[in-house]
Amino acid sequence: MIKIAQIGVANFGAYRRSQLRNTGRFNIVALCDRNPAALADAAAREKAQPYDDFELMLDHPDVEGVVISTGADSHAALAIAALRRGKHVFVEKPLCCSVDEVQALRTAAGESRRVVVVGHNHCPTHPIYRIAKSWANEGRLGTVVAYEENRSHSGGLEIQPGDWRGLSDRNPGGMLFQCGVKRRFGCWGWRRRASAPAARSVDQTNSSARAARASRCFTFAKDRTVP
Hints:
Strand content: 15-25%
Number of domains: 2
CATH topology of the largest domain: Rossmann fold
Order of helices and strands: EHEHEHEHEHEHEHEE
Number of strands: 9
CATH superfamily of the largest domain: NAD(P)-binding Rossmann-like Domain
Number of helices: 7
Oligomer: single chain
């Protein structure tokens, strides 16, 4: 199993650890957070060593990779520090807050010869996408000539003063920058001839506290080939 450390243990960080555990491929050996209560709770659950200093966590024996589940304004600095210590890096989206940060991270990755992976793209495993792909593979949809997805939630209305998501220098582009990157891989570019016109729509309603709502609409045309 790959020994990993994580910084940012609460909220989505907790979800990320659950996904890591589900793979059966990772051993979470060290955790770091600025919230003492959240850190203690996560460390007890994972039976991992808690740290309140990121640099000290990087010294933990045998750590091969680091998972960064903090706000985007700290992604570049943390990722570069981990790379310079010879660790592979998994960082949540969005990768960085500026082109300069991305370039610096790219340079550090090349110099360290370590891998940087951007996370939080769960689209391929989402039930809706699996249904759509299954229908396409079975030929039930004819030729897919267009794909449209609309997704909205109340996250942009819940930003508190001082939150990095509300600061233009730390979250350029606002909620489009923060959430839009999730949808990048939604369309698969299917190529298939249709024998008859067909149309399908799949709607999902999430009644969580954030009142998330998602819908996917698939549009098709008869006897057309996508170039």
